[in-house]
């Protein structure tokens, strides 16, 4: 599992694991979550995918970096009248099968949307998490 980008970057996978731990109600002060947050804080990636998943994980932890990461992500967004999307660096599209026409979203672009939308919701809403599923 690479966490969505093929450059060998494991930061997005760390962010996914951190988010999964927090969604499973692991406390943000838990050692595994704290170590993941420390690792993610040291990363300076500007890739929209990495920013989105890091922002989401940090928002779940109520970490102060969540807002600045979301702002960096929004700064890269292409905003039109009816849409908001991100253009990915060219090297990430080279390995995409030819069956994807240029006018269709690449898989990573679709996958990037839920974390960024979810993070925006978490940032604007300070209510507690919903009860766990039984």
UniProtKB/TrEMBL annotation:
GO CC term (a single one): extracellular space
Alpha-macroglobulin-like TED domain sequence ranges: 1-113
Write out the ranges of the annotated region (Disordered): 108-134
Q: Where is the composition biased (Polar residues)?
A: 113-128
Among Pfam families, the record links this protein to:
TED_complement (PF07678)
- What InterPro entries does the record point to? A2M/Complement_sys, Alpha-macroglobulin_TED, Terpenoid_cyclase/PrenylTrfase
Q: Which domain of life is it from?
A: Eukaryota
Its recorded name reads Alpha-macroglobulin-like TED domain-containing protein
- Its source organism is Petrolisthes cinctipes (Flat porcelain crab)
């Amino acid at each position: 599992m690479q966490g969505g980008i093929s450059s060998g970057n494991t930061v997005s996978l760390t962010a996914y694991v951190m988010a999964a731990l927090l969604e499973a109600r692991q406390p943000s002060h838990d050692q595994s979550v704290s170590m993941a947050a420390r690792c993610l804080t040291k990363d300076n990636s500007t890739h929209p995918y990495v920013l989105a998943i890091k922002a989401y994980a940090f928002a779940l932890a109520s970490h102060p970096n969540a807002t600045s990461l979301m702002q960096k992500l929004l700064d890269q967004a292409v905003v039109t009248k009816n849409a908001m999307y991100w253009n990915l660096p060219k090297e990430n599209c080279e390995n995409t099968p030819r069956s994807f026409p240029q006018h269709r979203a690449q898989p990573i672009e679709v996958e990037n949307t839920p974390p960024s939308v979810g993070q925006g919701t978490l940032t604007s809403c300070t209510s507690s998490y919903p009860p766990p599923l039984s």
